[in-house]
Amino acid sequence: MLQNLLQTGRISGIMRMNEIKPSHYVTEEKCQEMIDDAIRKHNRNAGIISMCVGWVVLSLFAEGLLRLVGVIPPLLPWLKITL
Length: 83
Known about the structure:
The structure is a single chain. By secondary structure, the chain is mainly alpha-helical. Helices cover 67% and strands 0% of the residues. The radius of gyration is 32 Å and the shape is rod-shaped. The relative contact order is 0.05.
């Protein structure tokens, strides 16, 4: 009796899963594709953010350097930078 139930797959979940495969299950290829898309999106967003932060840092550095050299007058009189 037990052997018959094991052979038909009514007790073993492994055999039953081989019989029933719903269409909403994600295949290994689809899973890898979703992971690759997520990594691609993350890298794009991180690159854009890094570019914006880089421009801000570069512009602040250039502005400070030009104020130090004397090309740009100080914003506030008491904020004069001297060497």
